[in-house]
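Hello forum,

I keep getting stuck at the same step: I have a sequence, I want structure tokens, and every attempt I make locally crashes halfway through. Rather than fight my setup again tonight, could one of you with a working pipeline run this one for me? It's a single chain of 157 residues.
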Amino acid sequence: MLRLEYPKSTYQRINTECMYSFYKNDHATLETTRDCGMNISYPRMNATVYMTYQEVKDNNIESLLYDAQKLAYDHNIKAESIPEQPFVNPEKSVYGMFYMINGDAASQSHFYVTDSLNHFVTGSLYFKVKPNFDSIYPAVVYLREDIRKIMETLEWK
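Reply #2:
Ran it on my machine without issues. Output:
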């Protein structure tokens, strides 16, 4: 049987001009996009975590939450299940949700984090291959751990 193994993850804090920082896997590359979005690429796995940043303003938190939840559940057509894991870190004012999308959906993970007052970050994991969950599952597991690390280490500036 085929066995896919990936290097042990090591992390370093990413500091940019943006309003947030987090720990990134050293085996991934980072590209900052407009408006403080970030693309974290994993060339060996042909995958990218796309992150976007938005300011919370004019009481738009409900709209931002709705859009983030809708983005995750838009994959419901192809997904077998979408378990949710709430994330709460009151010491750093980081609150969010992690969606694990299981099945042959276009994306296998989505998340959002916010402080509910000023900052909102969403992220989505995509592979540059036709979705076949059984084939990419080892990479999905590895990258979900990286996403958890991003959520757990994210700090607002």
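The radius of gyration is 15 Å. If your local run keeps crashing, start a new thread with the error log.
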